[in-house]
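Notes from hallway chat w/ T.B., transcribed later so I don't forget. T.B. wanted the structure written out for a chain they're using in a teaching module, and asked if we could keep both sequence and structure tokens in one place. Agreed to drop them here.
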Amino acid sequence: GDLITKNLFGDEKKILKYLLSQKDNSSWTKNMVNDLKIPKVRLSRKLRSLSEKGLIKREPHGNENRVILIKK
């Protein structure tokens, strides 16, 4: 799992480590806000960045997003 996180820092690294620790390597955004204590706006920005790097994908379900780690 270290390869995935080696070029990441701060919140982005925290988010990926969190996803790695989750069942199915995925989580709901609301759980991530609660568990990681990252404000929703900042989390959204970090998820967009991780998504652009091809590390995660987001699946909208109503007004929630499911965040899924993409295994390289």
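Follow-up for T.B.: The chain has a mean pLDDT of 93. Might be a good example for the class.
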